[in-house]
Amino acid sequence: MTINGDIPDRQTGLKLAEQYGVDGVMIGRGIFHNPFAFEKEPKEHTSDELLGLLRLHLDLHDQYSSLGLRPFKALHRFFKIYVKGFRGASFLRNQLMNTSSTDEVRAMLDEFEARNQEQS
């Protein structure tokens, strides 16, 4: 038997599995609030880690886009997952919503990171 629904992370899932004696846990929307929901030891993540994960997502999209599974526009809904909780995130996220390719997203990320390094 498995459980699902409003399970935000691995720790909550394990607690519920033990509490109710289930065999498995499914995390769905929780991943949209925390892209690190499956990590064993939860911690705060830096903007570099979040943007690095976005870059990995872009790489995977490029790798599999030749199969025609998902158009680029489908990636827009994921930007809010990775681009949040740090200075300039809202502005960057709004810019990313106007992109039309993974190369364009990478260029914006490069520019954002370079600008932030200059300000540090």
From TrEMBL:
Any one GO MF annotation of this record: oxidoreductase activity
Domain DUS-like FMN-binding, chain residue ranges per copy: 2-110
Protein name: DUS-like FMN-binding domain-containing protein
Organism name: Bacillus safensis
Highest classification ranks of the organism: Bacteria, Bacillati, Bacillota, Bacilli, Bacillales
